[in-house]
Amino acid sequence: MDKFNSPLIPYILDMLSRQPQLCTTKDELIDNIKDIILEEHIGSFGSLKRAVEFALEVGVNLGVISLTNERVRMPFNFRKTRPKFKVPSGIRITPRLGRRVVKQRMPKTAAKGIKKKKAGRKNQKKRR
Q: Could you name the domain of life of the organism this protein comes from (predicted)?
């Protein structure tokens, strides 16, 4: 088996992301993942426990899973946190001023390759 590839890693990360503290034990992980995993993912390992242990080892090698005292956890937290410093509020731009600035930056000439419509009968010269 490739030491950097395991078909169970996406399932494990999904289970961990659903936990409130982003961590769980190996036994809880195996119990939760048992119903989801297909037999083809387990076949080369012989048992679900071996497959999960190998996937955890691969996850640790890749740095996406952390193992501490039989707890499996994600080593990072994507939850929303308050910023450590507040961005100072600058000059407030009104929508009207914003539209005016955008209009000034828009090109005033027609794009190349676009032909204008021909004038109607009123504007055409009569041929005699």
A: Eukaryota
Domain hosting residue 49, numbered range = 9-73
Residue 96 covered by a domain: no
Residues 32-60 pLDDT 10s: 888 888 777 777 788 888 888 888 888 88
Mean pLDDT of the 8-23 span: 86
**What global pTM score does this model have?**
0.55
Our count of domains for the chain comes to 1
| Structure tokens belonging to residue 81 | 């946190």
Res. 62 pLDDT band, cuts 50 70 90: confident
By the 10 Å C-beta count (0-12 exposed, 13-18 middle, 19+ buried), 65 is classed as buried
Asked whether residue 94 is assigned to any structural domain, the reply reads no
- In one letter, which amino acid is 61? N
The pair of structure tokens assigned to 120 is 């109607």
